[in-house]
């Protein structure tokens, strides 16, 4: 086993069974090798659910908790040294935190992308050898390209400053891994611009491979998922035209979940009509359920979030309060009448509401205030369960900007957006006066708005550059 975390992904987890989604640790000196596994269609077909499972592994844990703990809409119920996410809450992460969030996110996202890379590497030969299966193989390739793009985007958000940190995005990003590296491969960090270019290349290629394929179930990547991720990527890049273009492609096809259906997509094990891409947690564990448990939660909605809700009829409050009106996040609380073993937690990666908010923000920056107002009104009207014509807003630029920011915080809370939204907007982190964190405020820019590169990677990869202030 290699010490280097990037090299560690050469021992990738591949699905051994498409039905059970079990994993086989593929040891290069063992009886089974990756080339053998990918020598037929059955092998690559079995690898795909394993790849999704690896993405679920990091989404169902620290990756979704980190931008909330580091943000300004959450309190931790305990601030002892052993509390979950305490270092991210207090901005005391260190490179040596290999077995905690710093090492966990780095390691498991790169492992997930290794699975996608194996599919991408071996798919062309399979198309050549099994031309009758080309349509299925192209769909598998499309999904793998989407997942690889998602992995690189997520890593860049955690370990690199936002795209607009420098005028030309020339600051350090992450290593771009397009093929499982060899034992002596030392991969340097690419610029954030280069990382985003690769993300967009993968997503555009994914769309090409999706052409002529049939749509699958709710928990798989699709052309709509590609459009949705492109909308988010271009929003982070401040390419407003492209953000509008791709958000519109989704909005034109995907309706918002309304009324009780909105609650059911969180609590009743229903994908939701506005689902674009979410990960299936069937038969898998998730620490999100413990972190946000309705009884004795580790993480509690802060008053900075609750106070944003001026109308107590907003349906979204039903996901943020208990019966005694005390704050609690119920987005990861299953009320469906199923056994405990059949309960599962399916984190959203992309959904329709975000597309409205992406487009509203992009329209705002294009100074198309009427269009921006229409999109944010759709989100407000759904929350209040009224017709959009009943919503009136102050549509001056500054007030509309504030409304969009507020609705984004209310709508996407605890889904892994808040801290990333603060940093990409170049805002100061300002927490509630009642926060029990040792950090009340951090001015933008800050070296501590990114996590350090894990020390094990630094020790074994001479090409790796550490983030400032973590040396």
TrEMBL record:
Domain of life (superkingdom): Bacteria
GO CC entries: cell outer membrane
The RagB/SusD domain, residue ranges: 327-470
Protein's cellular compartments: Cell outer membrane
Keyword terms, alphabetized: Cell outer membrane, Membrane, Signal
The keyword Signal is annotated on this UniProt entry: yes
Domain (SusD-like N-terminal): residue spans on this chain: 56-235
Coiled coil spans: none
Family: Belongs to the SusD family.
Protein name (Swiss-Prot/TrEMBL): RagB/SusD family nutrient uptake outer membrane protein
Organism classification: Bacteria, Pseudomonadati, Bacteroidota, Bacteroidia, Marinilabiliales
């Amino acid at each position: 086993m290699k010490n280097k975390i990037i090299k560690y992904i050469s021992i990738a987890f591949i699905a051994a069974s498409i039905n059970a989604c079990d994993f086989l640790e593929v040891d290069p000196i063992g009886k089974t090798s990756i080339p053998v596994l990918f020598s037929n269609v059955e092998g690559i077909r079995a690898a795909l659910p394993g790849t999704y499972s690896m993405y679920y592994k990091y989404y169902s844990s620290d990756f979704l908790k980190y931008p909330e703990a580091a943000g300004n809409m959450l309190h931790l119920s305990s601030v002892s040294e052993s509390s979950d996410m305490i270092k991210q809450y207090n901005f005391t992460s260190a490179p040596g935190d290999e077995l905690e969030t710093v090492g966990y996110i780095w390691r498991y996202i790169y492992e997930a992308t290794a699975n996608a890379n194996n599919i991408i590497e071996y798919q062309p030969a399979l198309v050549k050898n099994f031309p009758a299966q080309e349509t299925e193989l192209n769909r598998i390739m499309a999904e793998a390209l989407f997942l690889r793009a998602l992995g690189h985007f997520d890593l860049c958000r955690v370990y690199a400053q936002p795209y607009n940190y420098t005028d030309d995005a020339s600051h350090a990003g992450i290593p771009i891994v397009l093929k499982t590296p060899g034992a002596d491969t030392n991969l340097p960090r690419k610029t954030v611009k280069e990382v985003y270019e690769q993300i967009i290349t993968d997503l555009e290629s994914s769309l090409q491979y999706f052409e002529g394929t049939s749509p699958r179930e709710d928990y798989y990547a699709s052309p709509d998922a590609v459009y949705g991720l492109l909308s988010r990527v271009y929003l982070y890049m401040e390419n407003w035209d492209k953000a509008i273009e791709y958000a519109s492609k989704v909005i034109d096809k995907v309706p918002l979940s309304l009324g009780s259906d909105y609650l059911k997509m969180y609590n009743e094990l229903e994908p939701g009509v506005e689902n674009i891409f979410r990960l299936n947690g069937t038969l898998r564990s998730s620490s999100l359920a413990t972190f946000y448990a309705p009884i004795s939660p580790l993480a509690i909605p802060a008053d900075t979030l609750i106070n944003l809700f001026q109308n107590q009829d907003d349906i979204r409050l039903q996901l943020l309060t208990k019966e005694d009106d005390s704050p609690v996040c119920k987005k990861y609380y299953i009320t469906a009448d199923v056994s405990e073993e059949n309960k599962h937690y399916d984190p959203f990666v992309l959904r329709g509401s975000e597309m409205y908010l992406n487009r509203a923000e992009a329209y705002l920056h294009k100074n198309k205030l009427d269009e921006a107002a229409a999109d944010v009104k759709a989100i407000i009207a759904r929350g209040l369960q009224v017709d959009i014509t009943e919503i009136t807003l102050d549509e001056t630029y500054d007030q509309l900007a504030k409304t969009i920011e507020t609705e984004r915080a209310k709508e996407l809370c605890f889904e892994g957006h808040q801290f990333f939204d603060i940093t990409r907007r170049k805002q100061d982190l300002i927490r509630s006066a009642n926060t029990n964190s040792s950090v009340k405020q951090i001015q933008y820019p800050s070296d501590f708005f990114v996590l350090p590169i894990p020390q094990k990677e630094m020790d074994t990869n001479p090409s790796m550059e550490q983030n400032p202030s973590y040396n």
